[in-house]
Amino acid sequence: MSESMLSTQSGVESRRSGPVADPPQAGGAPTGRDGKSRSTKGRGTPRPAGKNRGTKGAKGGKQGSNVLAHCVLAIGGLAMISPLLYQIVMSLSTNAEVQSTPPTLWPSVVQWHNFADVFTSMNFGSQLWVTVAITVIRVIGQVLLCSMAGYAFARMQFRFKGLILAVVLSIIMVPSQLFLIPQYQIIQNLGWLNSIAGIVAPGIFSAFGLFLMRQFFMGLPDELEDAARLDGANPFQIFFRVMLPLAANGLWALVIITVLWSWNDLLWPLVVTSTANAAPLSVGLSNLQGEHANNYPILMAASLMAMAPILIMFLLMQKRVMAGIGRSGLK
Amino acid sequence: MNHNVTRRSFLSFAAAGAAVVSLAACGGNSAAGGSAAKAAYAAPAKDLSAELSYAIWDAAQKPAMQKIVTEFNKQYPNILVTIDVTPSKGSAYWTKIQTQASSNTLPDVFWMNGPHIKLYAQNNQLMPLDGLVSGKAVDTAHYPKALVDLYTVNGAFYGVPKDFDTSALFYNKALFKEAGVSEPTSSWTWDDVKSAGAKLSKFYQGKGVYGYAGDLTGGQTSYYNTMIEAGGTIISADGKKSGYDTAGSIAGLQFWRDLIESGVSPSMQQLTDTSSSDMFTSRKLAMTMDGSWTVGPAQKALGDDLGIVSLPKGPKSNQSVIHGLANVIPANAKNPAAAQAFVAFLGTQDAAKIQAETGTVIPAFNGTQDAWVKAVPSVDLTVFLDLAKDASPYPASANTAAWNELENTLLPQAFAGTKPVADVAKDLASQMNAALAKES
Amino acid sequence: MKAQILTPASKSVRAAQAAGDRRNGKSKSDGWWPWLFVVPTVAGIGVFYLWPIVQTFYYSFTKWGVFGGTKFIGLDNYVRLFADSTIPQSILNTLIYTVVVLLGIPIAVILASLIERPGLRFAALYRTLYFIPYITMPAAVGIVWRLIYNGDFGPINWFLGLFGIQGPYWTSTPGFALLAVATVGLWMSLGFNLIIISAGLREIPRELFEAAEMDGASRVRQFFSITVPLLTPSIFFVTIVTVISGFQLFDLLYVMMGKANLAMPQTQSLVYIFYNQAFLQNDKGYAAAIGILILVIIALLTAFQFRIQKRWVNYV
Predict the structure, then answer these.
(1) Structural domains of chain C sorted by starting position, each given as residue range(s) with its CATH number in brackets
(2) Residues of chain C contacting A266 with CB distance shorter than 8 Å
(3) Cβ within 8 Å, pair B11-A293
(4) Of the listed ranges A97-101, B71-75, C164-168, C219-223, the one predicted with least confidence
(5) Range of the domain at B188
(6) Chains touching B by CB (3 or more pairs below 8 Å)
(7) Per-residue pLDDT at B86
(8) Do A266 and C237 touch (CB under 8 A)?
């Protein structure tokens, strides 16, 4: 599937390829904004940290083992982000410092100009704009289309429903590269090469998103829907006014997953765009790598800049992002 | 530098795009443009009014191209030429060109290179320019013969050479001095370079500095040259048969294996991690075989420590592969008269002189290369020109990319010593022949 | 398929399905309304995803000209496929890669059980640290890891050098290269696995641990007799995701390996060979046959996993 275009390493791919089920509990109030207030079975309320400490945290053994836990988690966590720390240091170093042994821990003179140089080496501004545009369009498209289709598959009856669903779901597992040539031909026939329309067209349709939303809608209660129907609302009105607001949590999960995928998507935009101005950041970065293969500081600075918006967004909304990802797993 | 088409993995993206695009070409035109161009070209009237698009891929050369257009407009004031730069070296450029080829919207004049010329010419995408020659607007004698040959496909002349590049021996004077080894000369042989390299590697042992290496992730600045110097070929003149299984070719490949085995050169693995050009500019390599486009970066990194001499002589010769760009016109040119007038002008001595002044590329027009030679006075760049005189044409066939990929897959095993060089060469030859057979 | 792909149903899912069934009983069909909802998406998926698969199937029986034009050649591509020795090697590579990345799951279980300890301070910070690699750009981190693995000046070999160990050229030495790529795969997926498993952990009723504690069960004992068994649905889910994405391994190879890499035959995946044939060697007919093989393998693997899941997945 094109959503997973080039994101075949397990981390990114897993956003897309996994089977997913996470309906909110029937009757649950899906109104929480941070995911915590969605009640889960076995635990009626979010666990306040203090409470547990009060009830069982007094034992010396537990304190001791928490020290061990902190050690393991801190060392592991440091190891996890060390590549990024390394990248930051490299982006501020000279090329000679990058290639020196022992490795440079901090540059002797901080080379801020590496970041300025990125702007002269690639069309960062226009590529950022393209990246934002394709991400926004894909998110809007998927949220609208996938929620509508997911709703119908979850809560309506029509012919061939099971068959269509089975076919759609099997597509989730297919490596994206397989779609590349035929999708390219379609976009070319439409005359959409080198355009934002061409980049986003396959990606606003998502078998994964359809499935995700179907799972959410399956878990919603009947009562509100029935009441709306009795009031004479048609299915469109029921969907947009009653059911869609109830699926806000599912929509958030879809939004997060789509943003992550769209921002990083490389192979598809690379193939359908041929001018630097029409390409997103991922492609610009890849081209930069071709032109400045040995200029490591520029490459590091450019890739930091390309990742920065998504990293900042994550840090601002991390609870929601992690709840969204967690929800895309299972409950 | 701009036409260093065979380097870096990122080229594969070009191939990706190109390949994808080519799929859609089925319905495209073909037979257009053949007959019209056969007739001798006569310069159009000076008041010819037309608009031309000129597609290039090197932004650094745009000022020179713009200047040429200005000169051209002194002759044809009503031909408006728009230069369209598609940056990022070859990758995006070829994607775009192939897209346009498949939808009959090629630019009126565009840059062509060695790996692609046969693909386009044999698939009737280009206008033969024999008319320019018979009409005396272009004289092929003004350009290196290997370049003219490169752009002559099935007897028809398709591209007017624009510039060229050859390879030579680059060395670091400081590293030689420190090790007390006498510097290379243009009369060196393979044995000289091997023994000097061994001394250097020995002297710098443990310091990560090596004597001699080439870029083995592609043939243009390494094994293509030694294969030819040993009397071998990469591909037969008709482009139908692989030359990898000839004794000379095997000897040319063995040369690099010997360098690695004796420790003169870093290992194949190391050269994959850090390219030889990179090692040379970071003073980790005393000698390297490299292309004329790296003179600028090497001079910038090494300054006066940079030395350049001719290629060491092999069993048969000291020869370099020559590659260069050409200006071409699509088969279904919208305005063939104006496009031909422009291409003819691009091939003139005046246009070549303008290019030479920029110092980035060696202009193809014989006798105009002095300006480029003078651009870096600290080294004698005439070696590149001398090497061009009897250089070997860049090896290409209709689907060059297919067997380039085979080279990249198989040859590392030979260089690393995991398989005997001769076995790999023979295996490569048979696989390459199979790929070539599929082209027809 | 539909029933299979559902993740292990918990009570809430079952309740939801029951609710759906009740509804279904009420009205047999909703007329043409559902089509208004599904046609845009289903048509888009049909055009952009289903049709390409059908086309790939057709192309696998053809030969492609360089500038297009197909010729039917029957089973030739498949005959070649079964004689191609790089195919079984690449499947083996993929298996090794997948196994290494799967090691991230026990790691994630341990880390999650540490992070989810009641009242652990900095838990949010830890989650963030572990999760960040998951949201980084593959094209970008590939470059960073190439540097980290560099045999001459990379920090890994410098570190090994402190102990007198001469590290290999990680990304260009057969054997090591696959390990190096798989480690990055593990690094990128660990955060995802951790979040999924953490979510599963929070589902486990606290009372079970409290009861076990009263019975005097040690923490280790609790981990193996409560945590792990009750986490099996989550573990199953991340296992499937890991295996499927393992078989889609491509871009890490692409970004980290470079061309003319000696280690490529012992590292490349099926998808990489597909890409190479289709886009570098312009042999799209053969590539299509490889694509069909990939489809078959993934279908078999998934069916197999769902078949065996009953043996080890516990449902609450």
Answers:
(1) 83-312 (1.10.3720.10)
(2) 138-139, 251
(3) no
(4) A97-101
(5) 167-319+399-439
(6) A, C
(7) 67
(8) no
How far is the alpha carbon of C20 from chain A, nearest alpha carbon, in Å? 7
Residue B125 corresponds to which tokens in the numbers above?
């995408």
- pLDDT band at residue B410 using 50, 70 and 90 as cut-offs: very high
Q: How many CB atoms lie within 10 A of CB C120?
A: 19
Identify which of C78, C41, C48 has the alpha carbon closest to the alpha carbon of residue C63. Answer: C78
Residues in chain B within 8 Å Cβ distance of A275? 86, 92, 96
Q: What are the DSSP calls for B356-416, one per residue?
A: HHH-SSEESSTT-THHHHHHSTTS-THHHHHHHHTPEEPP--TTHHHHHHHHHHHHHHHHH
Name which of A270, A279, A294 is nearest B278 (Cβ-Cβ). A294
Shared-domain flag, residues B160 and B138: yes
CA distance B267 to chain C (A): 10
* A13 vs B178, residue with greater confidence: B178
**CA distance, residue B85 to nearest chain A CA (Å):** 9
The token duo for B116 is 């692609």
Token couple for B221? 């600045």
Establish if A178 touches chain B: CB-CB under 8 angstroms.
Answer: no
Closest CA to B241 of B432, B438, B404: B432
> Which residues on chain B are in Cβ contact (under 8 Å) with A287?
10, 87-88, 91-92
Q: Which residues contact B69 (CB under 8 A, 6 or more apart)?
A: B54, B81, B83
How many whole angstroms separate alpha carbon A299 and alpha carbon A305? 10
In a mutagenesis test of the A interface, which of C21, C36, C48, C214 is the best target, namely the one with the most A β-carbons within 10 Å? C48
Q: Do the domain assignments include residue B4?
A: no
H/E stretch holding A260: helix A248-264
* B258 found inside a domain: yes
Q: HSE (CB half, 13 Å, CA atoms) of A201? A: 23
Q: B105, B118, B72: which is closest to B399 by C-alpha? A: B118
3-state class of C2 per DSSP? Answer: helix
CATH of segment(s) A2-46+113-329: 1.10.3720.10
**Mean pLDDT of chain A, nearest integer:** 76
Q: What is the number of structural domains in chain B?
A: 2
Is B196 within a domain?
yes
Q: Find the CB nearest B24 among A180, A188, A293.
A: A188
Q: Which chains touch C (3 or more CB pairs under 8 A)?
A: A, B
What does the pLDDT read at residue C315? 55
pLDDT score, position B74: 94
pLDDT score of C68:
58
pLDDT-derived band at A315 (thresholds 50, 70, 90) equals: confident
Section C87-110 average pLDDT: 94
Choose among A184, A192, A177: nearest CA to B20: A184
Sequence-distant (≥ 6) Cβ neighbours of residue C4 within 8 angstroms: C302, C303, C306
C275 has a chain A CB within 8 A of its CB: yes
Q: Does C191 contact chain A (CB < 8 Å)?
A: yes
Q: Do B91 and A290 touch (CB under 8 A)?
A: yes
Judge whether B2 lies within some domain.
no
Q: Residue A290 and residue B89: Cβ atoms within 8 Å?
A: yes
Q: How far apart are alpha carbons B231 and B249 in whole angstroms? A: 7
Q: Tell me the mean pLDDT in the region A52-57.
A: 39
Phi, psi (deg, nearest 5) at residue B116? -105, -15
C191 to chain A, closest Cα gap in Å: 8
How far apart are alpha carbons B190 and B272 in whole angstroms? 24
What is the length of chain A? 331
Same domain? For B305 and B418 the reply is yes
CA distances (Å), origin B229, targets A3, A319, B253: 50, 65, 11
- Mean pLDDT is highest, among A46-50, A222-226, C91-95, for C91-95
Decide which of B31 and B121 is more confident. Answer: B121
